[in-house]
Amino acid sequence: MAILVDDSTHLAVQGLTGREGSFHGLRNKKYGTDLVAGVTPGKGGTDVEGVPIFDTVEEAVSEAGANCSMVFVPPRVAADAILEAHDAGISVIVAITEGIPTMDMART
């Protein structure tokens, strides 16, 4: 079995400023995960309990060293958020969003 998350994992949470993102992201931080960034377009430059927020995943990667992403965004933008993380070089992306449109799930 492959280990995808270890001591070298630096987590960004897409949607950290929202209810679900902050709940799960901060809980992961409490349990020892290296939460280095949140990503919420338009809220860059702020923070959530000391975790810096960036406007893009690319900024979270280049400025905070993120190499893993958890996605907590509405279904209508989930596919774009996942692809944004991939395009920024993130190789481990966790998304539990329900209700992603079927055609969005088929995008590559």
Distance between the termini: 26 Å
What kind of sheet is the major sheet? 6 strands, mixed
Class based on secondary structure composition and strand pairing: alpha/beta
Low-confidence stretches: none
Beta-strand fraction estimate:
15-25%
Tally of helical segments:
4
Q: How is the CATH topology named?
A: Rossmann fold
Number of DSSP strand runs: 6
CATH class descriptor name: Alpha Beta
Q: What is the C-alpha radius of gyration, as a whole number of Å?
A: 13 Å
CATH architectural designation: 3-Layer(aba) Sandwich
Basic shape = globular
Identify the strand order in the major beta sheet.
3-4-2-1-5-6
Fourth-level CATH superfamily:
NAD(P)-binding Rossmann-like Domain
Oligomer: single chain
Q: H/E series, N to C?
A: EHEEEHEHEH
Structure report:
- The protein is α/β, with parallel strands linked by helices.
- It has a single domain (13-105), classed as NAD(P)-binding Rossmann-like Domain (Rossmann fold, 3-Layer(aba) Sandwich).
- It has helices at residues 19-30, 57-64, 75-87, 102-105; strands at residues 10-14, 34-39, 47-48, 51-54, 68-71, 92-95.
- A 6-stranded mixed beta sheet has the order 3-4-2-1-5-6, with helices on both faces.
- The radius of gyration is 13 Å and the shape is globular.
- The protein starts with 9 loop residues before the first strand and ends with a helix.
